[in-house]
């Protein structure tokens, strides 16, 4: 174990500060339910944006990205489109302000503004969103839990602590033991202080992460210093052909096996599926998780757009400085790293912790370790907050105890928070690796989400019954797919989408349209573009001065520019640390032009 006293002291100080923050904000969080779950909708956009970026900077995702960068090189910048990472651009340009105009507390509550409070399918549509939200939250909690455990196992080998623990743990479950210990710390401060403590904790953690990432980048550049990396031809080129054509046979043969296991060899096919799924998923809007909660917590629609745009700016350059820095160190000293899992097979997800443990000097190791542990705690607490919001607002207050007093609601928030944590831990015991959970969430579960949540924004005739059947068919199919198919979950997505779409249309036309008064109110308040012509005519008949949303073409132009800009922010630190100066300057020029255009076409036109 390379941890020294100063490293351990930094880590313990951070944990103590997090506990203090929970106690500090306890009184403020207990004022009312909105203060606890949404920070009273009083937090400025840049704080929420930094908190949202902090929640996305998680251990599990960063371990996955470092593994991808090692194996796929600069082509790895495309693979996070699986989420899809560019959904932040769609939200930045128009969806965040549409969502915030509803003034709802959760995604399920938002449905009331679209489908009303009564009518066939309204209650089932409400319940199916809650089911999806909780499934995704539990999935992400398990995803973070197993990633944290694998991370800590490198720094604190079981051999070091075995004599101090009054029971024996099988080797396969050592990561779960570490996951439980640090999960309980995260649970404490996030449950006690609500969103106020989560946001402040995220800001502190992100400050630590900036220092850690810069330190890693400097160490990587110092070690590289003109040396040639031993990588396959094409590794340092972000562009690709029909096939991946990266051959690791004479360098690290297990990397070829990972490429085959991932199913990314036919990279153009994989990219096409990612893009198709990503565009529809982005048009559907944010999934009901911490990202949506941060949008709903902003002070106004304009600030919601600014907050979402800020996320990519603050997140990508910093995160990818760490990703490429650790990748460079791992490539330079690959023979010195032990990457075998308990089964004796090379696990590339161990590159991040193994490289940090091997090459970070004392003090810097403590800062990096603390930052990444904080990254887990930030993601965990944000996801936990979202799960609490759905259970309390959309189940307890709606169906069980609508007249509950504030004190009772706070007690239920605490109890529900503990319950959610233990369910997430339980599911984590069934996970073998980060990639398996990630693939199921983004390729499977979200496949059942997309169709219904696209139609709700853009088609007036779509109703609550159609929403319910579209979501229900998609979720059930996503849960059954692993048992009836093989291969990459992403390739199931078209089938899931078509099944869900069929459920949407059958359910919609089986019942009457949504009440006209609800549709008119939604159209006037949220002001979406799309297939709203009949409702637009009714609104204009009542109010001839009303102007419909004619920004479709401008929004789509801004989306294209934003996605290109997002890619530039991703690859800039990679070019910098690899000393690829010509593409670095070209990328900076492209990014500057995009910023100047978006200043005129997006920032100057923001409105509430």
What does this structure look like?
The protein has 25 helices and no strands. It has helices at 5-24, 26-29, 33-38, 45-56, 59-72, 87-100, 107-115, 122-155, 158-161, 174-224, 253-262, 267-283, 290-296, 301-332, 351-359, 364-400, 406-428, 434-445, 447-458, 464-484, 493-509, 516-526, 533-542, 552-577, 581-601. Helix 7 (107-115) packs antiparallel against helix 8 (122-155). The longest helix is centred in the first third of the chain and has 51 residues, at 174-224. The mean pLDDT is 85.
Low-confidence segments: none
- What is the helix/strand order? HHHHHHHHHHHHHHHHHHHHHHHHH
Q: What does the overall shape look like?
A: globular
Summing up helix and strand content along with how strands pair, one would put the structural category as mainly alpha
Q: Output the number of helix runs.
A: 25
List keywords for this structure.
about 600 residues; mainly alpha; about 70% helix
Helix and strand arrangement:
Elements: H1 5-24, H2 26-29, H3 33-38, H4 45-56, H5 59-72, H6 87-100, H7 107-115, H8 122-155, H9 158-161, H10 174-224, H11 253-262, H12 267-283, H13 290-296, H14 301-332, H15 351-359, H16 364-400, H17 406-428, H18 434-445, H19 447-458, H20 464-484, H21 493-509, H22 516-526, H23 533-542, H24 552-577, H25 581-601
């Amino acid at each position: 174990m390379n941890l020294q006293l100063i490293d351990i002291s930094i880590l313990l100080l951070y944990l103590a500060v997090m506990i203090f923050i929970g106690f500090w904000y306890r009184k403020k969080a207990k004022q009312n339910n909105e203060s606890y779950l949404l920070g009273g909708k009083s937090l400025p956009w840049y704080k929420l944006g930094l908190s949202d970026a902090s929640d996305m900077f998680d251990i599990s995702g960063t371990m996955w990205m470092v593994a991808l960068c090692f194996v796929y090189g600069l082509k790895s910048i495309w693979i996070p489109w699986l989420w899809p990472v560019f959904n932040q651009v769609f939200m930045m340009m128009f969806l965040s302000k549409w969502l915030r105009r509803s003034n709802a507390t959760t995604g399920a509550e938002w449905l009331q503004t679209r489908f009303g409070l009564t009518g066939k399918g309204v209650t089932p549509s409400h319940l199916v969103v809650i089911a999806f939200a909780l499934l995704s939250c539990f999935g992400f909690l398990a995803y973070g839990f197993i990633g944290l455990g694998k991370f800590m196992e490198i720094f604190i080998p079981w051999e070091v602590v075995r004599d101090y623990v009054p029971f024996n743990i099988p080797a396969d479950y050592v990561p779960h033991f570490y996951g439980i210990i640090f999960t309980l710390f995260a649970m404490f401060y996030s449950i006690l202080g609500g969103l106020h403590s989560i946001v402040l904790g995220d800001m502190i953690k992100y400050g630590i992460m900036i220092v850690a990432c810069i330190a890693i980048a400097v160490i990587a550049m110092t070690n590289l210093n003109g040396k040639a990396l031993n990588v396959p031809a094409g590794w340092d080129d972000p562009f690709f052909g029909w096939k991946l054509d990266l051959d690791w046979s004479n360098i690290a043969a297990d990397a070829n096996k990972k490429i085959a296991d991932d199913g990314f060899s036919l990279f153009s096919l994989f990219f096409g599926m990612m893009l198709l799924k990503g565009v529809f998923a982005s048009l559907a809007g944010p999934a009901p998780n911490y990202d949506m909660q941060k949008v709903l917590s902003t002070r106004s629609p304009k600030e919601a757009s600014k907050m979402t745009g800020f996320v990519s700016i603050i997140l990508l350059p910093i995160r990818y400085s760490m990703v490429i820095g650790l990748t460079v160190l791992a490539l330079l000293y690959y023979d010195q790293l032990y990457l075998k899992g308990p089964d004796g097979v090379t696990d590339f997800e161990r590159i991040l912790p193994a490289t940090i443990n091997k090459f970070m000097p004392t003090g810097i190791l403590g800062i990096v370790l603390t930052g990444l542990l904080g990254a887990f705690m930030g993601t965990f607490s944000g996801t936990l907050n979202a799960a609490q919001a759905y259970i309390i607002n959309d189940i307890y207050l709606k169906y069980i105890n609508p007249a509950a007093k504030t004190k009772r609601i706070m007690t239920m928030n605490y109890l529900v928070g503990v319950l959610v944590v233990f369910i997430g831990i339980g599911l984590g015991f069934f996970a073998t690796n980060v990639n398996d959970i990630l693939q199921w969430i983004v390729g499977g579960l979200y496949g059942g989400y997309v169709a219904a949540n696209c139609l709700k924004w853009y088609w007036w005739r779509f109703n609550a019954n159609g929403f319910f059947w579209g979501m229900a068919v998609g979720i059930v199919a996503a849960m059954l797919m692993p048992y009836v198919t093989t291969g990459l979950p992403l390739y199931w997505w078209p089938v899931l989408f078509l099944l869900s779409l069929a459920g949407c249309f059958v359910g919609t036309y089986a019942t009457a349209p949504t009440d006209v008064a609800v549709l008119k109110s939604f159209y006037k308040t949220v002001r979406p573009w799309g297939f709203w012509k009949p409702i637009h005519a009714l609104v204009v008949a009542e109010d001839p001065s009303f102007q419909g949303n004619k920004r479709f073409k401008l929004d789509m132009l801004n989306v294209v520019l934003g996605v290109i800009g997002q890619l530039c922010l991703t690859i800039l630190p990679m070019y910098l640390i690899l000393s690829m100066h010509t593409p670095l300057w070209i990328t900076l020029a492209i990014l500057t032009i995009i910023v100047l255009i978006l200043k005129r076409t997006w920032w100057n036109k923001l409105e509430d």
